[in-house]
Amino acid sequence: MRTIENISTIMSTDIIALNRDDDLEKAEMLFKRHKIRHIPVVDKDVIIGMLSYTDLLRISFADAVDPYDTDVDTLVYNMFTIEQVMAKNIISVPSTASVKQVAELLAKREFHALPVVDNGVLVGIVTTTDLINYLLKKL
Predict the structure, then answer these.
(1) Please, are residues 94 and 116 in contact by the beta-carbon 8 Å criterion?
(2) Is the pLDDT of residue 138 over 90?
(3) What is the structure's pLDDT at 58?
(4) Overall CATH class of domain 7-138
(5) Predicted pLDDT at 60
(6) Separation of alpha carbons 79 and 84, rounded Å
(7) Which InterPro entries is this protein grouped with (predicted)?
(8) Mean pLDDT of the chain
(9) Angle between helices 99-108 and 128-138 in degrees, nearest 10
(10) Where do the domains of the chain lie?
């Protein structure tokens, strides 16, 4: 009989997060430094949104013009706040959700990361990359 593991076995618990008062320049720096594509936005330990690297690309045209021109990015980033750019109506899962449940949810929706929340507190994040790596280990 096959056991279905909880998402807690594959989720990332070393959470890189932003606060609502952080700026988009800090977000871009975190995306690039940590080579990640999704960052939860928190108020203390409570998640209030999710920012993706794609969200930043939607508002910034600087990389298309000159990838080394940071002045244009800074100008555009100063026009918006994290709260204006982040996804607000997010879906989260508890750490007890099964890997199968999370995979089904990600397959049906248009996002690639889910915050993992227990008792209202952000405890991790699970991405499609985490699921692919999990499946590769199982094969």
Answers:
(1) yes
(2) no
(3) 84
(4) alpha beta
(5) 76
(6) 10
(7) CBS_dom, CBS_dom_sf, Diverse_CBS-Domain
(8) 87
(9) 130
(10) 7-138
Distance CA 98, CA 75 (A): 43
| Residue 36 one-letter amino acid | I
Tokens of residue 4, six digits:
């279905």
113 near 37, Cβ under 8 Å? yes
* pLDDT reading at 2 higher than 80: no
Residues 36-90 pLDDT 10s: 999 999 998 799 999 999 988 888 764 445 555 555 456 677 788 999 999 998 9
Tokens at residue 118, please?
Answer: 């227990």
What is the spatial distance between Cα 103 and Cα 18, in angstroms, rounded to a whole number?
A: 25
Q: pTM of the entire structure?
A: 0.84
Q: In DSSP terms, which residues pair with 117 in a beta bridge?
A: 122
